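I'd like us to work through together how a protein chain folds, taking it slowly. To get us started, please write out a protein record for me. Go ahead whenever you are ready, and we will take it from there:
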Amino acid sequence: NSVFSQTQQEVVNYFNSICRKSEYNDDGNGGLKKWNKDIFIYVKGQKIDYLMSELQSIINELNQIIDPIHIRITNDELKSNFTVFFGSHDDYKKILKYKDVLIDDNWGLATIYGNPNIVYATIYVDIYRAKSVEAQKHLLREELTQCLGLMNDTYDYPESIFYQGWTETNQYADIDIKLIKMLYNN
């Protein structure tokens, strides 16, 4: 966490750059996207203990932060509206056939469907290219959080989970929590 606190205007500016734009397809309309119903996460691929436990920790944190919706893991794929995949980019390409280039270029990827209400999301964490446990946990946290509707990265706050540069941050910065609350609890 940073030693200084941002002004309300800085938080609003950061919110607009993270929530009103997307890393890969900024449609420019600036509309907010978010879930308006509970999220049921189904995990595919290699369910490694430390990643499953990290996923549950992130979910617990988000459920403390977000008021109107609840996030949980389900073992029923038909009940799910969010898929988390742990494995190789080649295996993930079999799931998302049309995003081949993005998958090849990224060790983690978030994709959301629905506007303005997100109805389905999928993420992947490449457990082969991202070799360190900390990197895998970071990618899981970042991609999962982006699927809540916070789809952009910037170079503004190095301690933020939305930092564009490479980090292995495994906790939300104060400003990240403020952004999530602004999107969901207002």
User: Anything to note?
Assistant: The first strand starts at residue 39 and ends at 45.
